[in-house]
Amino acid sequence: MVQKPGKSGQKYVGYQEDITYGMTSTVKIILDARVFGLIEEDENCDGWLAAGILALQEKVADAWDKSGFIPSRLPDELRERHTRIYKQAVQDARANGWDPDREIEEKHR
Fold first, then answer.
1. For the segment 14-40, what is each residue's pLDDT rounded down to a tens digit?
2. Which of 83, 38, 89 is nearest to 61 (CA)?
């Protein structure tokens, strides 16, 4: 998820290169940032320093705080965007080999 390119610090490989588009914590930050308009919907954050991802995570948390971190409490426009963005992300992830059931099984071994 984060690669070490040397002197420039840790850089994120990008959403489309993140473990089979899997629903990693970093991918969820990016998706939520897209929902809230903190980044453009086509921004993949490739090449971002880890500090930039962390700063984005803080902004995402602040945005979610207003709705109690519950998608159904989002205003209509944001709720519809959330549904659309996450639906596409799950389809892409599955098409690239992500299996949520396998993740659950591996965590509970």
1. 988 887 677 889 999 999 999 999 999
2. 38
> Residue 67 is part of which domain span?
2-107
* CA distance from start to end of the chain: 23
pLDDT digit string (tens) for 49-97? Answer: 999 999 999 999 999 999 999 999 999 999 999 999 999 999 999 998 8
Long-range interactions of 49-57: CB distance < 8 A, separation 24+:
49/8, 49/9, 49/10, 49/11, 49/12, 50/2, 50/9, 50/10, 50/11, 50/12, 51/9, 52/12, 53/12, 53/26, 53/29, 56/29, 56/30, 57/29
Q: Domain count for the chain, please give it.
A: 1
